[in-house]
Amino acid sequence: MRRLRACLGAAAAVGLAAAGTTALVAGSASGATSALSNRWYAAAPYLMPLDNDPPDPATIMDATGLKAFQLAFVLAPNGGGCSPTWGGTAAVSSDTAVQSVVNTIRAKGGDVSVSIGGYGGTKLGQVCSDAAATAAAYQQVVTKYGLHAIDFDLEEPEYENTAAIKNEIGAAKILQQNNPGLYVSVTTAGTADGTGWFGKQMLLEAKSQGFTPNNFSIMPFDGGFNGAASQTSALTNFNQILQSTFGWDQATAYAHEGFSGMNGRSDAGEFFTQTDFQTVLDYATSHNMDRFTFWSLNRDRQCTPADNGGRTSGTCSSVAQNPWDFATYSVKFAGATPPSSTPTPTPTPPSTGCKPAWSSTAVYTVGNEVSYNNHNWKAKWWTQNETPVASDWGVWQDEGAC
Asked: How would residue 231 be classed by pLDDT, with cut points 50, 70 and 90?
């Protein structure tokens, strides 16, 4: 699930989302005249164009060779209604800011996909009356930006709403039918077993509607994952879920499967380094998977002590890196070679001093800080004899290594 976002598919089995397939050109007010290969849309990392200190996409393109960006997120208006907005506040119909970002990318030979949904906020599938109305709202986005690709990011809390998921899947099917060649991805939560109960219900809804996107992607982070081995295990398990749900063989299931990772430190304090990304990339390419992306380009840069002090950030990765290190793995997945350059020295991560050691007999109140197992922790409320451990519902908040 993509916390820190706001602070934080094609035709059935015929396409199999083969690399090099080109989407049909759609006329639009955006001036788009051509599409990239589907492989580029499959490799597009997420970028928040209006939040989380947006980086300049032109700079990333020059440094890495990246051509495609997954712009996030389109939501229902915060005040209610069935019309698309950026982040619930900026109406798509009157947008010029995101359009400027799109124009910059296209002027350099690139293109964008748009992601709808995400973690938190009100989704159009929750408020629009039915699938047709939901599709009509999304069609405004497709037409406004001349899209050749779109991503349905179905997760908390929307994917727990049966009616909303029915609307979203139905809308995805309608968009696919009304925009020939549109590249459609569906992204949902990942678990060690592949995906959870709600993710499986979403797949069953797609099956019942006869909808097959270019891929179903899972996000194997924020769920007790620890490095690449746990992620590739989840991808293997998800492949088996796709086989059993749709009656596909293993190869067909992989051709409809995608990976959406989180670079650096996740919301749950998990760490995914450049080495982990390379391992998952090798798995994805060797199994002919359809998608390899990550959250996010806003985070694809080294933190400074002022940025986050060892915590998860929406604007940097919390691991030692050079700018745009993680974007290069998307470039490789697309089949291109990142431009060569003289590497800059990898910065030494800032050291964080340890707070006083946690004591099982001491009483702690909200805001008290301790150290335990080489991490600093902050108490959320009164506690005594509760061992510091990372948990969304626990008393202790992990403040990072020390």
From this structure: very high
For position 309, what pLDDT does the model report? 64
270 is an active site residue: no
Instruction: Please give the structure tokens belonging to residue 44.
Output: 């597009």
Cα distance from N-terminal residue to C-terminal residue, the chain: 26
Tokens describing residue 237: 């398990």
E strands, 172-254, are 183-189, 215-219
Structural tokens at position 45: 């990392």
Q: pLDDT digits over 191-220, tens only?
A: 999 999 999 999 999 999 999 999 999 999
Residue among 155, 168, 205, 270 flagged as catalytic: 155
Long-range contact list for 344-347, CB < 8 A, 24+ apart?
346/320, 346/321, 346/322, 347/302, 347/320
Average pLDDT over residues 253-266: 97
Q: What angle do CA 147, 13, 239 make, to 5 degrees?
A: 95
List the beta strands (DSSP E) in 76-127: 85-86, 90-91, 111-117
CB 68 within 8 A of CB 334: yes
Strand partners, 379: 396
Whether residue 33 has pLDDT greater than 60: no
Extract the tokens encoding 170: 């139905």
Q: Which pair of structure tokens corresponds to residue 229?
A: 């081995």
The pTM of this model reads 0.81
Buried residues in 44-72 as b, exposed as e (16+ CB within 10 A): bbbbbbbbbebbebeebbebbbbbbbbbb
